[in-house]
Backbone:
């Protein structure tokens, strides 16, 4: 499986164009985090497609490890050289976010730059064991389908429906319990 993913992503270009709103996230070629075992079910509720299905973003959960930060995003996108590229967005390589609010994502397309998807993420609050409300920030990912290039961009504004205080609780739901809808 690892050989399969490394073959698909070998020619992909990953660019970091400035710091995003939530800090210095990690956008990496797929590794163990992207294992099919880490996909959050039901797939129809915990993933989004864009570009007539050419781009898919899905929630990953590494089984609660590390306990504070096991939520990641899988990004499958076109790669002109290999057909499909596979990337993982994490807070830091191997360490995810406390919660990813995929259901509150938004997107826009610019013909000159590509697809821009903005997704709010939250970090762990050790005092409550949930999401630190002050840490919720949008992360913007630019996906250029024709070049195969992915880039983190500085988020200009939070999505229209930022997570409310009622969304956050001391026992924040797991990624699979977020109820993301298409």
Residues:
């Amino acid at each position: 499986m690892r050989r399969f993913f490394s073959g698909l992503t070998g020619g992909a270009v990953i660019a970091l164009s400035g710091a995003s709103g939530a800090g210095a996230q990690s956008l990496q070629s797929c590794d163990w985090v992207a294992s099919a075992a880490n996909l959050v079910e039901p797939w129809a509720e915990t993933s989004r497609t864009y570009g007539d299905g050419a781009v898919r973003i899905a929630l990953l959960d590494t089984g609660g490890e590390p306990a504070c930060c096991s939520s990641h995003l899988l990004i499958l996108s076109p790669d002109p050289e290999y057909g499909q590229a596979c990337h993982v967005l994490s807070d830091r390589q191997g360490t995810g976010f406390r919660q990813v609010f995929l259901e509150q994502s938004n997107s826009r397309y610019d013909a000159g730059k590509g697809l821009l998807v903005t997704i709010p993420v939250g970090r762990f609050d050790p005092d409550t064991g949930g999401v630190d409300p002050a840490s919720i920030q949008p992360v913007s990912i630019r996906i250029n389908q024709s070049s195969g290039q992915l880039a983190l961009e500085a988020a200009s504004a939070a999505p229209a429906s930022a997570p409310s205080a009622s969304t956050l609780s001391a026992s924040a739901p797991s990624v699979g319990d977020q109820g993301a809808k298409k």
